[in-house]
Recover the amino acids of this structure.
């Protein structure tokens, strides 16, 4: 993968729109003018509530859904002017476990490579199957594979034509912790070898941990697109947590004007503005309200908070 030319942007999308026409002629505007750039070599996260347009976006990149307007460049190739090269540059791991029951994993990879015109001498089916822990299942019928194995087979299939960009649509939905961990470590390995990764996930912690850069899509528009630390720092609110001597049964009276909440474990949480409010004042206010303070800690905002602030919706 090292001999590949590398454009600055793996994906560049301008003015992308998609309007679906429903059964009764009703129109659904799934994408309403999306501009998005995915830098080459990054692990890029696409987050958004249900129905935000993430799958539509990915399916347009994959060539599975026809856009209504706008331009899409994949690995420098314009999707309209150079459909073959732009398609060859991207591999998509779909959300659904749609493996062909009568193909063995090896046959599935060979068929996929054949579809993209990869000559036999350049196919790496066995290597890919081994990397995904499917070597001993290479000749088993796909229908006999476990759910986790099918998921890994879909990743393998998406890699069969050696794409520069790998898209994973909700790759860890319904996946157990062990598979999730091994999937992510493989994704990191691919990224280290130069593959640009785009993933959608509802697991905000995961996006926070995995992604260099994150776009938040809401109602068919890009609500935010920033490097992960910058996105997090947009939120000025920190939280002071007071751990009382004995768990509180209710938030004490006398904390008027503070957005105090009681946590299920009996701790008291008090949001405050970084740099503007003094957390020690909050401690004094709590003490004055009768709270016996055993310990205090502060928390940074996480993506869930950013998400809430931007979209007003709570994520999954
Ligand atoms: N084939 C279709 N025909 C009509 N409407 C569609 C079609 N596919 C998607 N939509 C609508 O387009 C909007 C965006 O859907 P999309 O699946 O892209 O969202 P999403 O962000 O991927 O959601 P999720 O997280 O639930 O997968 C939704 O309102 C959806 O109902």
């Amino acid at each position: 993968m090292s001999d590949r030319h590398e454009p600055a942007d793996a994906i560049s999308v301008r003015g992308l729109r998609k309007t679906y026409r429903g059964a009764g002629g009703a129109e659904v505007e799934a994408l309403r003018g999306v501009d998005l750039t995915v830098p080459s070599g990054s692990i890029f996260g696409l987050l958004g509530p249900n129905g935000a347009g993430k799958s539509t976006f990915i399916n347009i990149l994959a060539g599975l859904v026809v856009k209504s307007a706008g331009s899409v460049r994949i690995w420098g190739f314009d999707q309209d002017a150079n459909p073959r090269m732009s398609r060859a540059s991207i591999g998509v791991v779909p959300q659904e476990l749609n493996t062909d029951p009568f193909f063995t994993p090896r046959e599935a990879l060979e068929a996929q490579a054949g579809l993209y015109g990869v000559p036999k001498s350049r196919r790496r089916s066995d290597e890919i199957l081994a990397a995904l822990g499917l070597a001993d299942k290479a000749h088993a019928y796909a229908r006999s594979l476990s759910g986790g194995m099918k998921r890994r087979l879909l990743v393998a299939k998406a890699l069969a034509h050696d794409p520069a960009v790998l898209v994973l649509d909700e790759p860890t939905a319904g996946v157990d912790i062990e598979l999730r961990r091994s999937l992510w470590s493989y994704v990191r390995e691919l990224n280290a070898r130069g593959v640009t990764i785009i993933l959608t996930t509802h697991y905000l912690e995961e996006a926070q941990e995995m992604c260099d850069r994150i776009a938040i899509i809401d109602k068919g528009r890009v609500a935010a697109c920033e490097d992960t630390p910058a996105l997090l720092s947009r939120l000025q609110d920190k939280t002071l947590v007071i751990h009382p001597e004995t768990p509180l049964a209710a938030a004490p009276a006398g904390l008027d004007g503070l957005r105090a909440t009681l946590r299920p474990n009996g701790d008291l949480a008090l949001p405050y503005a970084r740099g503007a409010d003094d957390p020690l004042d909050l401690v004094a206010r709590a003490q004055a309200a009768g709270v016996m303070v055993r310990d205090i800690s502060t928390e940074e905002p996480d993506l869930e908070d950013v998400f809430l602030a931007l979209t007003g919706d709570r994520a999954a």
